[in-house]
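User: Can you fold this complex?
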Amino acid sequence: MRRAPVALTAALLIAPLLAACGGDDDGPFITVYNAQHEELLEEVAPIFEEETGIEVKLRSGKDLELANQLVQEGDASPADVFLTENSPAMTLVDNAGLFEPIDDETLALVPPQFSPSDKSWLGFIARSTVMVYNTDALSEDELPTSLMDLAQPEWASRVAFSPTGADFQAIVSAVVATQGEEAARSWIQSLADNGTVLENNLVVMKAVNDGEVDAGIIYHYYWYRDQKESGENSDSSQLHFFGDQDPGAFLSVSGAGVLAASDKREDAQAFVEFLAGEEGQQAIADSYALEYPLNPAVSLEPPVKPFSELEPPAIDVSTLNSEVVVQMMQDVGLL
Amino acid sequence: MGALALVPLGFVVVYTALIGPGDAWDLVARPRVGELLGNTVTLVVGCTATCTALGVGCAWLVERTDVPLSRVWHGLLVAPLAVPAFVNSYSWASLVPGIHGFTGALVVITLSYYPLVYLPVVAVLRGLDPALEEAAYSLGHSRARTFARVVLPQLRPAVLGGCLLVSLHLLAEFGALQMLQFPTFTTAIYDQYGSTFNGEAANMLASVLVLLCMLILLAELRLRGRRRYARVARGAARPVEIIRLGGGRGPLTLVLAAVVALAVGLPAYSLVHWLRVGSSTEFPVGELAAAAGTSLGLGAAAAAATVVLAMPAAWLAVRYPGLTSNLVERSTYVANALPGIVVALALVTVSIRAVQPIYQTYVLLLLAYAIMFLPRAVVSVRAALEQAPVLLDEVAHSLGVGSLATVRRVTLPIIAPGIGAGAALVFLAVSTELTATLMLAPIDTTTLATRFWAESSSVAYGAAAPYALLMVLISIPAAVLLGRHASLSSPWEAPR
Amino acid sequence: MTRLELRGVSKSFTDVRAVAAVDLTVPHDSVTAVLGPSGCGKTTLLRLIAGFVVPEAGTIRFGDVVVAGDGRALPPQQRKVGYVPQEGALFPHLDVAANIAFGLPRSQRRSARVGEVLDLVELPAAFGSRYPHQLSGGQQQRVALARALAPEPSVVLLDEPFSSLDASLRASTGRAVLRALRVAHATAVLVTHDQDEALSLADQVAVMREGKVVQAATPREIYRSPVDAGVARFVGGAAMLPAAVRAGVASTALGELPVAGDVGDGAAEVLVRPEQVLIGAGAATVKARVDEVAYYGHDASVTLTVLPDGPVVVARAGGLDVPEVGATVTVSVAGPVVVFP
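Assistant: Here's the predicted assembly.
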C-alpha cells in the first residue's frame, strides 16, 4: 500500500516526458508562434496540412509576450512563422532583425498598404476601430463624426477605453500619423483626464452595454462575436463606424512573418502564402473570427459592415506604435 | 535550488544594470509608478487585513463555538481553494457589473485567498491549551479580552504565515486583477510587455516589485520574532471549551453562509449560467479530457518535483537556523512574487542559451513551475519539519537506528502531512498557471488554463466555462487534502 | 549491564569549556545522579556518553569497550544506550507499543518484550494501543523509559526526565522509574538540577560545577561531608558561620562546637545544617529571634536571627512544637560540625 503513491508519482513524472519524445512524429512540420486566436488557426491550418502534408504546430500566446519571447530566443528560436493580432508585435520582432522578407508573389495577394514597406512581414487580416454606444444613452444623431471629438468637454466621463493593450496604442499612433504629434498629444491628454480607463476591450464593451458609460472605443469584431455568442454583452448597444479617413476609422492589421533563423523557410513561406491566398482567406472569412480578410477576392458575410464601405486613413503599418506614442501615453499617466 | 530560484531575480537585476542608473531612475520616478506603488501597497495591506479578519473569524466560529454543522462549514470554507482567483473574478465581473477597482479587487481577492489564513489558524486553535484561557478568565478578563490577549498572540505565527502567502500571491496576481481593472505592479508589467519598446520599463517595475517582496519578507521575519519550535506532545490536552453563542448563533451562522455563498456559490452559479447561456457551449469530451489529463499530470509532477526541491531549503532553515540558511530559504520566495511573464522570459533567455536541449520540454516547464511555486512547498515542509525536532532523531539513534532508517521511520512519517499540504498548494497553482505554460511547454500542450484563456479571450464565454469548471473539479482533491490536514486535531492521531 | 567509566573527558563549544577533564565511574547495576545548576555541563556530559557529542580528549568505556577515545568514537546507534530525554520525546506518529518496539530488531517487535517492559514501568498492557498525546506527562516518561529499556541497553541515560512534571507526579514517577531501573539491573546516569531527586533516587551523586565533577560520592557522604562550601550550599540547606578553630573546637555565634574530622587551628567557616539547630533544648544559652516559620505539618522550617544582630540560621523544628514569629528562643547545635578552613 505504502508504495502506491510513489509508483503513481513516478508514473506521472515520466509519462509526459515519454509523451514528449513520442510526440515528434515523422512528417514535415512547421512551428508557428501564434498570437492569433487559436480557434481561427484550428479552422484554417488543417486545410493547409491536407494540401501540403506539412503539419502546423502551434504555440499560442499573446502578441507581445510571444514577440518578447522571440526576441529573447534570437537565433536559437524554434519558430518558423509568427502570427499576430496587431502590427506592433511584428514591428518589435522586425526591429530585432529576426524576419526574412516575404515572397513577392505572396505580398501581391493583398493591397500593399497593409504590409510594411520593407516587406519583412505581411498583413493578412484587419479589424476596424469602432465606437460602441449604449442605445439608451445615445441616439444616432448624437454620434460624433470624428474620434477627435471625444476630447471635447461634452464627452467628459462618457467614454471608456482600454489604453494598456496593443489595440489602443495602435489607434493612438493612427491619431499621431494623421493629425500630427501636437494634436495627438492634446487629444490623448483630454481623453486621459475625462475618459474612463478600463482593462480591456471586452470590459469596455460590457461597461457600455450595462450603461456604466455611454460609449467606448473598441474593435468591430468584439461586438459581432458577442452577438453571435449570446448577445449578453452587446444587445443594449450598437456600433458606430467613423468614416472619411478619420483616425477613428483606422484599420489594425494582423501580421504574418517568416523567421530568418528558421531552417524550414520554404515551408514557412508556403504557409504565409496560403494564409493570404483565396482559400485561406475564405476559411478565415467563414470562421467565427469576423475579422476582415485582406485578399480582395474574399469578403465577410452580413451583418458585418462590408470591407468596401470602410473609409480608413492611409497609414504605413510599420510606423505604428512608435516610441513617441508610448512616451506620450506614459507622460499622461496611461502607461 | 537557491541558485535556480535566483535566475529570474538575476534577469531583472542584469537588465536594470544594462539600462544604467540614470535611465532606470527616470523609469522608476514616474507618476504612474507612484500610483502603482500606492495601489499595490494598499491592496496588499487591505487584503491581508480582510483575509486575517475573515480567516480568523471563521476559524473561531467553526472551531470554538456551538455554530451548527461545523464540520460542513469547515469543508465549505476551504472550498475556495479549488476556485482559481481569475475564475472567481471572471464570475464576479460577469455577474456584478461595476465590481471593479479597489473595492472589487479587495472583495474578490479576499474571497479567493482567505483560506490561506483560515487553514493554519484552524490548526492552531485546535491545539491550544485551554488552561491558558482559563487562567485569563480567572484573572477577570472578559471573553473578548481573553481572545485578544491570550488567543490572538498564540495565533500570531499562523496568521503571519498565512499573510505572507497572501501578500506574495497578491504581488504576482495578474489574471484576477486584470479582469477587475485594478492596476498593480504586476498588471502594469504585463501592460509594459504589451508596449513595443518597453521591456526595460517592465523590468524596472519588476525590480520595484522585488524590493516590495523583500520588505514583506523582512517584516514577516521581524514580526514572527523568536520562532517557537513545536513541542512534542506533553500530556493529554483537555478538550477546549465550546463557547455558546446564544442569540448570536443564528446571525453568525448566516455570516458563514454568506461567506460561503459569495466565495463558492457565486462562481459556481456563474459557471453554470455560462454553460447554459452561451451558444458556443459544447462539450468536446475528448478535448476536455485531454486538457484535464495534461493539467492533472503536470500539476502532480510539478508538485512532486517542487516538494523534493523544497526539502533541502526547509531542512537547512529548521535544523541549522542562521543567516545563511535564512537567506537560502528566503531567496526562494522572490520568484514567487515576480509575475509569471518575468519568470518565464528569464527562463527563456537563460535556458535557450545554457540548456537548449531541454528548451520547451516538460523538464524545463517543471523546473519553471518549481521555481515559481517553491515558497508554497517550503512554507509547508518547513512547518512540518518543525514538528520533527532533532531530539527525536537522537532518541532513534540511541535506540540503535541509523540515519537513513531514522529518516524513513521517524522524520518522513511525521512530516508527511506537511509534504502533502505543500504538494497540494503547488498543484493548485500549477493547474491554473498560464504564462509560463504558454511560453515553455512543449508545442501542442493544452492545459485547462490555456484552453480557458484561448476560449475566453475570443469572447466564447460558454466554450470557456467547461474548462473553468474542470479546473475547479480537478482542484477539489487538493483542497480536500488541505482541509483534512488542518482538521486532524493532531496530524498523528490514530486512524479512526 | 555494564560499568560506565569516564577518564579525563573534555569538550568545548566555541570558547566555552563545557566539560573539563571529567573522571567518573558508574558501577554496574547502580544509579548515579549528576547534579548541578543549569549551565554546569551536566547535559553535555550525558550527550558525550550517549554519543551525540564527540569528546576532544579523554576516554569513555562501557565495560571493556571503548566507545569514545583513542581517536575513535562509536556513533550513538552502535553504543546501545537507553536515552530518556527531558520531555520523553515519544514518536508522535506511533502508538505506545510501536514506540517501545522501535529499537527492537524486526523479529522481536511483536514479541512479549513490549508487554514485559510496560509491566516493568508499571503501566497496564492496554496502554500499548494509546498514542502519546493521549497520555499524561508522567505516563509519557514511563513509556519513554520502557522504550529505552526494551532493547536491553548497556547504559541508561536520563536527562532531567521529571523536570516537566508537576511536584506530586515528580516524586511518584521518580520512584516508579527507579524501581524499573533496579529490576532491570540497569547502569543508569540521571542528570538533574534537583537535589532532593538526586539524594533520594541515586546510589551515587556526582556534583558538577563549571564543567568539572567536584565531588562524587554516596548521597549521605555528599550531604554530610561536602568537599567545599559550594557543594555544601548546593546540596541541602546550609548556614555557613564564621568561626575560630582551636584544638578541635570551633568558636561561633552559636557557641563552642565540636569539629568533625581533623582540622588545623585558625579562622574557618562552619557548616550548620537545619536539623542540627535545636530550639529550646537543654542548657542552651544563645538567644535568637524567630523571623519566619514555614509549617509543613510533619515539621517546620524556622528562620532565626541570632541576637543581637545575626547571623541568620534555619532550624528544622518538630511539627508539634513550633515557636511563634517574633518570639525569642534559645538555640543550640547538635553533634559535630563540618569545618572548611
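The first helix of chain B runs from residue 2 to 5. The two ends of chain B are 39 Å apart (CA to CA).
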